[in-house]
Protein backbone atom coordinates (compact mmCIF):
# COMPACT_ATOMS: atom_id res chain seq x y z
CA UNK A 1 0.00 0.00 0.00
CA UNK A 2 1.50 3.36 -0.99
CA UNK A 3 1.60 6.50 1.20
CA UNK A 4 -1.51 7.95 -0.46
CA UNK A 5 -3.55 4.83 0.23
CA UNK A 6 -2.31 4.73 3.84
CA UNK A 7 -3.22 8.41 4.29
CA UNK A 8 -6.70 7.68 3.00
CA UNK A 9 -7.14 4.74 5.38
CA UNK A 10 -6.72 2.29 2.50
CA UNK A 11 -9.75 3.71 0.67
CA UNK A 12 -9.39 4.06 -3.10
CA UNK A 13 -10.16 7.44 -4.68
CA UNK A 14 -13.75 7.98 -5.85
CA UNK A 15 -14.78 6.49 -9.18
CA UNK A 16 -14.55 8.87 -12.16
CA UNK A 17 -18.34 9.26 -12.29
CA UNK A 18 -18.49 10.22 -8.58
CA UNK A 19 -18.86 14.01 -8.07
CA UNK A 20 -16.07 13.85 -5.47
CA UNK A 21 -13.60 12.80 -8.17
CA UNK A 22 -13.48 16.44 -9.33
CA UNK A 23 -11.15 17.15 -6.39
CA UNK A 24 -8.56 14.73 -7.77
CA UNK A 25 -5.94 16.00 -10.22
CA UNK A 26 -5.07 13.91 -13.23
CA UNK A 27 -1.35 14.34 -12.54
CA UNK A 28 0.93 15.01 -9.59
CA UNK A 29 1.81 18.67 -9.05
CA UNK A 30 5.44 19.60 -9.81
CA UNK A 31 5.80 21.73 -6.65
CA UNK A 32 5.61 21.22 -2.91
CA UNK A 33 2.47 21.77 -0.89
CA UNK A 34 4.29 24.43 1.15
CA UNK A 35 5.12 26.34 -2.05
CA UNK A 36 1.47 26.09 -3.15
CA UNK A 37 0.06 27.24 0.19
CA UNK A 38 2.49 30.17 0.31
CA UNK A 39 1.44 31.10 -3.21
CA UNK A 40 -2.25 30.97 -2.27
CA UNK A 41 -1.78 32.96 0.92
CA UNK A 42 0.29 35.59 -0.88
CA UNK A 43 -1.96 35.99 -3.92
CA UNK A 44 -5.30 35.71 -2.15
CA UNK A 45 -4.04 38.13 0.52
CA UNK A 46 -6.05 36.13 3.00
CA UNK A 47 -6.27 37.00 6.65
CA UNK A 48 -5.02 34.71 9.37
CA UNK A 49 -8.68 34.06 10.23
CA UNK A 50 -9.41 32.80 6.72
CA UNK A 51 -6.32 30.61 6.78
CA UNK A 52 -7.39 29.01 10.08
CA UNK A 53 -11.02 28.67 8.92
CA UNK A 54 -9.84 26.82 5.81
CA UNK A 55 -8.25 24.18 8.05
CA UNK A 56 -11.49 23.95 10.04
CA UNK A 57 -13.37 23.36 6.77
CA UNK A 58 -10.88 20.66 5.76
CA UNK A 59 -11.32 18.99 9.14
CA UNK A 60 -15.11 19.09 8.79
CA UNK A 61 -14.81 17.77 5.26
CA UNK A 62 -12.76 14.79 6.44
CA UNK A 63 -15.63 13.84 8.74
CA UNK A 64 -18.34 14.46 6.13
CA UNK A 65 -16.62 12.73 3.18
CA UNK A 66 -13.99 10.17 4.25
CA UNK A 67 -13.35 9.25 0.60
CA UNK A 68 -11.85 12.72 0.23
CA UNK A 69 -9.05 11.98 2.67
CA UNK A 70 -6.15 14.26 1.82
CA UNK A 71 -3.68 12.72 -0.63
CA UNK A 72 -1.13 13.89 -3.13
CA UNK A 73 -3.66 13.96 -5.95
CA UNK A 74 -6.34 16.06 -4.20
CA UNK A 75 -4.66 18.18 -1.56
CA UNK A 76 -4.09 21.19 -3.84
CA UNK A 77 -7.70 21.46 -4.97
CA UNK A 78 -9.01 20.87 -1.46
CA UNK A 79 -6.76 23.55 0.05
CA UNK A 80 -7.54 26.07 -2.70
CA UNK A 81 -11.29 25.57 -2.44
CA UNK A 82 -11.38 25.66 1.37
CA UNK A 83 -9.18 28.78 1.48
CA UNK A 84 -11.20 30.70 -1.11
CA UNK A 85 -14.47 29.83 0.63
CA UNK A 86 -12.96 31.08 3.90
CA UNK A 87 -11.77 34.29 2.22
CA UNK A 88 -15.26 34.88 0.83
CA UNK A 89 -16.81 34.34 4.25
CA UNK A 90 -14.32 36.29 6.37
CA UNK A 91 -12.30 38.79 4.38
CA UNK A 92 -13.15 42.11 2.77
CA UNK A 93 -10.89 41.67 -0.26
CA UNK A 94 -12.39 39.04 -2.56
CA UNK A 95 -11.27 38.51 -6.13
CA UNK A 96 -13.01 36.97 -9.12
CA UNK A 97 -13.29 33.23 -9.63
CA UNK A 98 -11.11 33.64 -12.73
CA UNK A 99 -8.36 35.14 -10.57
CA UNK A 100 -8.52 32.27 -8.07
CA UNK A 101 -8.35 29.80 -10.97
CA UNK A 102 -5.17 31.44 -12.26
CA UNK A 103 -3.57 31.53 -8.81
CA UNK A 104 -4.61 27.97 -7.96
CA UNK A 105 -4.02 26.35 -11.34
CA UNK A 106 -7.60 25.33 -12.06
CA UNK A 107 -8.20 25.25 -15.85
CA UNK A 108 -11.65 26.85 -15.92
CA UNK A 109 -13.99 28.96 -13.83
CA UNK A 110 -16.75 26.39 -14.31
CA UNK A 111 -14.54 23.69 -12.85
CA UNK A 112 -13.65 25.86 -9.85
CA UNK A 113 -17.28 26.87 -9.22
CA UNK A 114 -18.22 23.18 -9.19
CA UNK A 115 -15.48 22.49 -6.62
CA UNK A 116 -16.73 25.29 -4.42
CA UNK A 117 -20.37 24.23 -4.70
CA UNK A 118 -19.48 20.63 -3.84
CA UNK A 119 -17.39 21.68 -0.86
CA UNK A 120 -20.21 23.85 0.48
CA UNK A 121 -22.76 21.06 0.05
CA UNK A 122 -20.47 18.57 1.80
CA UNK A 123 -20.09 21.05 4.66
CA UNK A 124 -23.87 21.46 4.68
CA UNK A 125 -23.06 25.17 4.26
CA UNK A 126 -21.64 25.23 7.82
CA UNK A 127 -18.99 27.88 7.31
CA UNK A 128 -19.27 29.68 10.64
CA UNK A 129 -16.38 28.91 12.96
CA UNK A 130 -16.95 29.38 16.69
CA UNK A 131 -14.37 30.94 18.96
CA UNK A 132 -13.47 27.68 20.71
CA UNK A 133 -13.03 25.81 17.41
CA UNK A 134 -10.98 28.70 16.00
CA UNK A 135 -8.68 28.76 19.02
CA UNK A 136 -8.27 24.99 18.98
CA UNK A 137 -7.37 25.00 15.26
CA UNK A 138 -4.98 27.91 15.80
CA UNK A 139 -3.17 25.85 18.47
CA UNK A 140 -3.27 22.70 16.34
CA UNK A 141 -1.84 24.38 13.24
CA UNK A 142 0.57 26.64 15.13
CA UNK A 143 -0.98 29.46 13.17
CA UNK A 144 -0.42 32.37 15.51
CA UNK A 145 0.60 34.60 12.64
CA UNK A 146 0.87 31.92 10.02
CA UNK A 147 4.17 33.28 8.75
CA UNK A 148 3.40 32.44 5.16
CA UNK A 149 3.45 35.96 3.81
CA UNK A 150 -0.17 36.94 4.34
CA UNK A 151 -1.47 39.95 6.16
CA UNK A 152 -2.67 39.41 9.68
CA UNK A 153 -6.12 40.37 10.80
CA UNK A 154 -5.89 43.67 12.71
CA UNK A 155 -8.69 42.55 15.02
CA UNK A 156 -6.46 39.66 16.11
CA UNK A 157 -8.98 36.97 15.24
Residue runs with pLDDT of under 50 for 5 or more positions: 1-7, 146-157
| C-alpha end-to-end distance | 41 Å
Q: Number of folding domains?
A: 1
Please outline the major beta sheet.
none
Q: What is the CATH top level name?
A: Mainly Alpha
Keywords:
disordered C terminus, disordered N terminus, 157 residues
Explain what the structure shows.
With 157 residues, the protein is mainly alpha-helical. The protein has one domain: Cyclin-like (Cyclin A, domain 1, Orthogonal Bundle). It is built from 7 helices and no strands. The protein has helices spanning 3-7, 33-44, 48-64, 75-90, 97-104, 109-122, 131-141. It is globular. The protein starts with a helix and ends in a 16-residue tail after the last helix.
What's the short version?
This protein is mainly alpha-helical. The protein contains seven helices and no strands. It has one domain (22-141): Cyclin-like (Cyclin A, domain 1, Orthogonal Bundle), CATH 1.10.472.
Describe the secondary-structure layout:
Layout: H1 3-7, H2 33-44, H3 48-64, H4 75-90, H5 97-104, H6 109-122, H7 131-141
Helix pairs in contact: 2-4, 3-4, 3-7, 4-6
